[in-house]
């Protein structure tokens, strides 16, 4: 049974209007380009007032899976991937046999409408319910958090800014620590392996916590404003998967490819079908994958852009390898930012806001 049978994105979305290039599978405008930002006319800024989910309840018991697209508004591979699978379900080419799956093609409809990463702020940070919401993403979180809690497993579909191959992000190994206690590492790794990418990345929240601690020590020149104050909040690193784990579930973030790469939609669609098969929601056997031959990297540091004059020494792509001492960028005063060890540059963002993450540093899992 489905609450909405149409595979189309929410009415009023840029795609449904037929005017936008953001959602064209082969369009190039899914890439973030500040020059394309729409103006802030009231009609554009009028905020969406609902989330649109599509839920299928199998008639036999099974796990409850939630699939998210466009948590970041300019990352539309999940929107198109879920639309494609919905079309299969609606036309009987695929059937939910057991358990529950909920698809949410556009998780941040304001950011999606604006064709940018964020609406008022980054939805995938500081995720928690608020009694008194302060911005659009707080209002989304008040609906999204209970939705996460009502499911057991999360597949969160994203894309990235610069070029490179798809990868999948997992949480910590099983532990009883205070930051992110966890006991579902084994099924989570199985899920990560079955989504397909060669590269698996771990250590997200721990890395954030380190950055937050550094900001709290006043190492960064902070400007006023809520988005800035959030980067000193201990909950800053909590996004969809972290929230899911904090409620006893598990999940992965799949980075399907570059924003504008049409292949990212195929990666998203494949991962959805694999996950449905792995969890037994469909009768299709998933392709088998093992950890053998996969690259497992651990994020170890987040480096902030401290000044608008901070610049990379070259156009880095995620997972470009660097050796200890290699200069990754230069601060505005000319001082070098060098790799402290052999490792990899991850999520480089040459246009990062001052006071937020410029790039991450990862090393092979020990
Ligand atoms: Zn994203």
What descriptors fit this protein?
three-stranded antiparallel beta sheet; OB fold (Dihydrolipoamide Acetyltransferase, E2P); 10 helices; binds zinc ion; Aminopeptidase; eleven-stranded mixed beta sheet; alpha/beta; 2 domains
Describe this structure in words.
The protein is α/β, with parallel strands linked by helices and 366 residues long. It folds into two domains: 51-293, 3-Layer(aba) Sandwich (Aminopeptidase), CATH 3.40.630.10; 298-364, Beta Barrel (OB fold (Dihydrolipoamide Acetyltransferase, E2P)). Helix content is 26%, strand content 22%. The chain contains ten helices and 14 strands. It has helices at 14-17, 42-45, 77-90, 109-114, 136-149, 185-195, 204-216, 226-230, 240-246, 263-278, and strands at residues 54-57, 60-69, 98-104, 153-160, 167-169, 199-202, 250-258, 295-304, 311-312, 320-322, 327-330, 336-338, 343-346, 357-364. The chain has an eleven-stranded mixed β-sheet, with helices on both faces. The N and C termini lie far apart (46 Å).
Average pLDDT confidence is 86
Number of strands: 14
- Ranges with pLDDT <50 over ≥5 residues? 1-38, 220-226
CATH architecture of the largest domain: 3-Layer(aba) Sandwich
Instruction: Could you tell me the CATH topology label of the largest domain.
Output: Aminopeptidase
Query: Which CATH first-tier class of the largest domain would you pick?
Result: Alpha Beta
Helix content: 25-40%
Which sheet architecture does the biggest sheet show? 11 strands, mixed
Approximately how much beta-strand content do the residues carry? 15-25%
Spell out the helices and strands N to C.
HHEEHEHHEEHEHHHEHEEEEEEE
Radius of gyration, in Å, reads 20 Å
Q: Which hetero compounds are present in the coordinates?
A: zinc ion
The largest sheet has its strands arranged as 1-3-2-4-7-5-6-8-14-13-10
Q: Counting H and I runs of at least 4 residues, what is the number of helices?
A: 10
**Terminus-to-terminus distance:** 46 Å
Number of domains: 2
In the CATH hierarchy, what is the superfamily of the largest domain? Zn peptidases
Structural class: alpha/beta
Instruction: Give the overall shape.
Output: globular
